[in-house]
Design a protein that fits this description.
The chain is an alpha+beta fold. It has a single domain (5-105), classed as Aspartate Aminotransferase, domain 1 (Alpha-Beta Complex), CATH 3.90.1150.30. It has 3 helices and 6 strands. The protein has helices spanning 5-13, 52-61, 90-113; strands spanning 18-23, 26-31, 34-39, 45-49, 66-67, 77-81. The chain has a 6-stranded antiparallel beta sheet with strand order 1-2-3-4-6-5. It is globular and about 30 Å long.
Amino acid sequence: MLVTFETVRKTALSLDNVKECKSYGTPGFKVGGSLFLRFHQDGESLVVRTDIERRAEMMAADPSTYYITDHYLNYPWILARLSRINADALPGLVWMAWQEARASKAQSRSRTAH
């Protein structure tokens, strides 16, 4: 099954506390005010929140699907080509990004509480 942005939208919105938003002029998704996923302006990729270590593993395991540009080198994001994402893997990919955003938000709250 081909993964479309509509498939991504349904998957993202099925998670708790997700709101659709605009990010850099493209549709995106936030949890608790933190962006975790958006459609890339190239019209062919997703921008997915992850940690840098996991990103390296993903790119090594499947470089035809996962990649980064120089813009994202120092940030916890990975790009994923929609045309290459396995439909069975999509829920896990979206959930991973959602979890990363929630964890980042929790760390931020913890730092400001001390």
